[in-house]
Amino acid sequence: PAEGGGPAPSPLPGGTPWECAFMKAPLDYGEPDGETIELALIRARARDQNRRIGSLVYNFGGPGGSGVTGLPAFAGDYEKLRSRYDLVSFDPRGVGRSEGVECATDKELDAYYALDFTPDDLAEERTLSTAQKKYAGGCENESGPMLPRVGTENAARDMDLMRQVLGDDKLHYFGISYGTELGGVYAHLFPQNVGRALFDAVVDPNAGTEEGALGQARGFQLALDNFAKDCVARGDACSLPGSTVAEIEGFILGLLAELDKKPIPGIGDRKLTQTQATNGIAQALYSKEYWQYLEQGLDAADGGDGALLLALSDSMNGRDQNGSYSNIQAANAAINCVDFKERFTLGQAKERLPEFREASAVFGDYMGWALSSCSQWPVPGTWEHPDVSAPGAAPILVVGTTGDPATPYEGTKAMVEALGEGVGVELTYEGEGHGAYNGGSKCVQNAVDAYFLEGKVPASGTRCK
User: What does the domain layout of the chain look like in residue ranges?
Assistant: First the structure.
């Protein structure tokens, strides 16, 4: 259930089975002979064992995403790479079956996610503060001993242990979104152990909590602008009111304002609130393929039916149709809050709202208030931002998408520079969505495949469409 439930994954084409295992790792790497935890792994063996290069370890991001469910879900996209690699993924510590962090019951989470996370007055601010305190307290009660130890640096050390357990001299790695931050920290700690590594949808390693949130606000606003432009270009074929980008986004803002006053029917007895609608809109902007559902959801909500936007929000929050939650958001909070030192009170978050509203009319308030999410966390954070400098590491392919909402394109160049001269190799996808390899560009796929399968490093600065 912590991984999202569902049946065991079906065998791959040709009948290759999925292999699952647990790996023991130190709870505290400062005490390597002390208490251990178990980390969940999954593997599909390479098709051509005679030409096998090694294991290719995936992290699909979050932080908080389960690799044990993620790899089988997307395995079809990586069949070419499986020709010469064992595909491997894992639940990082605190995630899924790897001593997964828990914070609240399903019923409590339904109520929590329905709250107004963009308070309009002092009473709503007090309600939000109380809820944040209760949520953090639940995490401490259910998972206290794990909370100080689920950070990215420990996860990177787990990956090096995994490399050794898998029998590989080098770690070959495919990191997406937060997985690029994890990969950067690994490269900093173990530069001599880096094999062929891809960072796709790159987190800006220089950004602290506030800079990262502002970047996301701008990124989601850019993606919404592009969605609205597409709607305008389709004319009457688009069901949303408005003949300009400003008019369509004005319609969205008006809808959210109405939901703030009065939620509408959603799924079952649950209503669609302003916060859940904003969350659902953001979820639909992760991929251009979801734009059709965003259009349908906004149109339906305008007519009083909030089911589709609520379903999109549920997907973001890890809720299945039966009302069960994975631990993706609990793990996300635990990892982010132990990684980053900054602690913003609600008052400090409120002071920064003008800058966030300037970054995004639609997402500014939501992202700005979210600065306070670690304000009452029971353990301290580790860094202002991660160190990813990796002098001496093998070339790492760093791929950014110009229209990426969640990890804005500017982070790509920042990662290349931070990795150091001769390490980061920049590849740009001029397109939409979060993640380039699965974004539909043959140019990107061919470059990445040649890098992993043949060791061909593209020229830094290469651009694809």
Answer: 19-99+150-206+385-464, 101-147+208-379
